[in-house]
Amino acid sequence: MTAVDTADVDDGHKPAAPTRPFSAFEWMIAGRYLRSRRRETFISVIAGFSFAGIMLGVATLIIVMAVMNGFRTELLSKILGINGHMLVQPIDSPLTDYDIVAPKLETVPEVVAAIPFVEGQALVSGPAGNLGALVRGVHESDLRRIPLVAQNILEGGSLDGFSEGDGVAIGSRMAQQLGITVGDNVTIISPRGSVTPMGVTPRLKAYPVIAIFEIGMSEYDATFVFMPLEESQAYFNMDTKATGIEVYVVDPDDVGVMKPAVEAAAERPTFVTDWRQRNVTFFSALEVERNVMFIILFLIVLVAALNIISGMIMLVKDKGKDIAILRTMGASRGAVMRIFLITGASIGCVGTLAGFVLGLIVCLNIESIRQFVSWMTTTELFSPELYFLSKLPAEIDSGETITVLVMALVLSLLATVYPAWRAARLDPVEALRYE
């Protein structure tokens, strides 16, 4: 054989240069596998369901976690906005020096306000019925420092003259259920009345309604009655005493650190409780529900990832001849594996992105969607009596959203690894034996 012939033979058997990882060739083949042809309709349907599952799972996770966050934030702002972050109560002796103690508490750094109050339970009566109520007596200046009340007056205009008269401010739902408006009288009945030789007689007195407020939390709007402090002391036989002092701070999460400073600033025996101790059962239940919902909805994404596995295995079975031809043309096992990795990961990545966009759109328009669905079904989809709040809240947490997206992407990639490995291990000879 001549040198020329030898060169020809060598050139004819020279192996093709391997393609670089994730080259345009691999993306092109993966794209062709994603596009449906008539005889591959069933596989495309499975891929479509996998895409829809990932999209809906991610969107549902984002929406539910945002609503749960919104619930917690709204409830926390309503509960702490009217009850304070810390409650200072007297020990050993009655709190008759509240006008001295409150200014001392306000000298503590990070304390916004210290509001003395008198509190008692009573029965309120109006033309349309009777309700149990929590009557709270405060100074007019202190009531103005509670934004949830002072900035949400629906009727009555303002709180001017609140401390000068004997009028009361009530919630909107209480006014609605009692059938009264500003200017009407509401009768307050307390079982702890005057002591007579015949026993204790209930105390009954009518008060004009000078303001109607709406906090936005149905339980509070149907329960709270605000009364001037001096009038509440006389009504509940408190003389010159106060029930306690509500302390408001800049950051509610710092109450544990600030508690010793507040106790020291009072300069008298006191018992200080913070909002976490007073609402531990409620917020613990809310946190447990939130975690359980995350686990349940995570399973939706997991099922969608399993759909990717089944769809990709069927695609590998269907493309056995194509894989064998690619191998005989010089494609390496790594190239085949990357082709199917791109195919499966594309479903997961695009589905995750679509789910994120869908979840974001729903969260930003959650209240409008609720109203529309309620209108379509002629039902009250989000009853304030059951869920405490008047509107459906949604608060997107960037950290949680990123966690959901990363989790969905990782599951999608892991679901693609085994089918891609199976495709790379396919023997071209066996695949073409009966073709």
UniProtKB/TrEMBL annotation:
Query: Any idea where the MacB-like periplasmic core domain is?
Result: 51-263
Mode of membrane association: Multi-pass membrane protein
Q: Which stretches are transmembrane?
A: 42-68, 292-316, 336-362, 402-421
Q: Does the keyword Cell membrane apply?
A: yes
Q: Where is the ABC3 transporter permease C-terminal domain?
A: 294-428
Task: Name the major location.
Answer: membrane
Location(s), subcellular: Cell membrane
- Output the superkingdom of the source species: Bacteria
Q: What does the UniProt keyword field contain?
A: Cell membrane, Lipoprotein, Membrane, Transmembrane, Transmembrane helix, Transport
- Record's Pfam families? FtsX (PF02687), MacB_PCD (PF12704)
The similarity annotation says: Belongs to the ABC-4 integral membrane protein family. LolC/E subfamily.
What protein name applies here? Answer: Lipoprotein-releasing ABC transporter permease subunit
Q: Which organism is it from?
A: Roseibium sediminicola
Identify the taxonomic lineage of the organism of origin.
Bacteria, Pseudomonadati, Pseudomonadota, Alphaproteobacteria, Hyphomicrobiales
